[in-house]
């Protein structure tokens, strides 16, 4: 699948050059000319990485980055004509994954994108995950407790897989939304609903099963 990039840039000539080169390099690119359109792309599309200019006509790219970082860990590369150390430090401290000063070569941009995407990938999980009596076969997409198979929907499977891979670790609703749904723009109630359904299926098993525990104010964990 071609990675989907959001290019938030107000200079048409520069944006068209970037989009053309990036599409030839194997990416899908959605171009937004200002902060409002960029925010719409980030809200409504499944984006793998954002390329964000700081000097936008309707607001600061740094403010858009700050708003994004309050809800998401989407990889972001800032591109800007502002090369002063204070500007670079501000962008990185707010949460940019990389900072490129204009002008730069398109080859360097592609290399930076690949590097950031590699760093943002979650670690590979083992084929079979065991947490107490719970077995999650990630290759067969099956879950069992003491040999009894559970019938799970895809998101229920993904949620239980993530919890079982790190038993006793607490995951926030935002972390679960970002990893499983691909976005933390969803409501935390989405996670709560799936946890409720999973608890019901685990409770129906004839043998004692691991429990999904709510840690008030923090999130959820699996107790084997």
Structure description:
The protein has 224 residues and is an alpha/beta fold. The protein folds into two domains: 4-120, Rossmann fold (3-Layer(aba) Sandwich), CATH 3.40.50; 128-223, Orthogonal Bundle (Arc Repressor Mutant, subunit A). The protein has eight helices and 13 strands. A five-stranded parallel β-sheet has the order 2-1-3-6-7, sandwiched between helices. The chain has a four-stranded antiparallel β-sheet with strand order 8-9-10-11, covered by helices on one side. Strands 4-5 form a two-stranded antiparallel sheet. A hairpin with a 2-residue loop joins β8 (128-131) and β9. α6 crosses α8 and α7 packs across α8 (188-203). The mean pLDDT is 88. Residues 4-117 form the Response regulatory domain. InterPro entries: CheY-like_superfamily, OmpR/PhoB-type_DNA-bd, Sig_transdc_resp-reg_receiver, WalR-like, WH-like_DNA-bd_sf.
Largest sheet geometry: 5 strands, parallel
Number of helices: 8
CATH architecture of the largest domain: 3-Layer(aba) Sandwich
Outline the low-pLDDT stretches. none
What is the top-level CATH class of the largest domain? Answer: Alpha Beta
Shape: elongated
Main sheet: strand order:
2-1-3-6-7
Structure keywords:
single chain, 224 residues, alpha/beta, Rossmann fold, Arc Repressor Mutant, subunit A, 2 domains, four-stranded antiparallel β-sheet, Response regulator transcription factor
């Amino acid at each position: 699948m071609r990675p989907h990039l959001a290019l938030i840039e107000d200079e048409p000539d520069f944006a068209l050059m970037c989009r053309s080169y990036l599409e030839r390099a194997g990416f899908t690119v959605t171009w937004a000319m200002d902060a409002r359109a960029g925010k719409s792309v980030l809200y409504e599309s499944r984006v793998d990485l954002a390329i964000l200019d700081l000097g936008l006509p309707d607001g600061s790219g740094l403010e858009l980055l700050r708003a994004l970082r309050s809800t998401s860990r989407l990889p972001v590369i800032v591109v800007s004509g502002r090369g002063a150390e204070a500007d670079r430090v501000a962008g990185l401290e707010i949460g940019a994954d990389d900072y490129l000063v204009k002008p730069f070569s398109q080859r360097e941009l592609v290399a930076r994108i690949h590097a950031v995407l590699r760093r943002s990938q979650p670690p590979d999980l083992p084929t079979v995950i065991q947490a107490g009596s719970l077995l999650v076969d990630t290759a067969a997409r099956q879950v069992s407790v003491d040999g009894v198979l559970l019938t799970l929907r895809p998101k229920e499977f993904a949620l239980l897989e993530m919890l079982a891979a790190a038993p006793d670790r607490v995951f926030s609703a935002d972390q679960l939304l970002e990893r499983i749904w691909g976005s933390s723009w969803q409501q935390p109630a989405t996670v709560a609903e799936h946890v409720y359904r999973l608890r019901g299926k685990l409770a129906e098993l004839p043998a004692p099963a691991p429990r999904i525990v709510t840690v008030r104010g923090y999130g959820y964990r699996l107790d084997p």
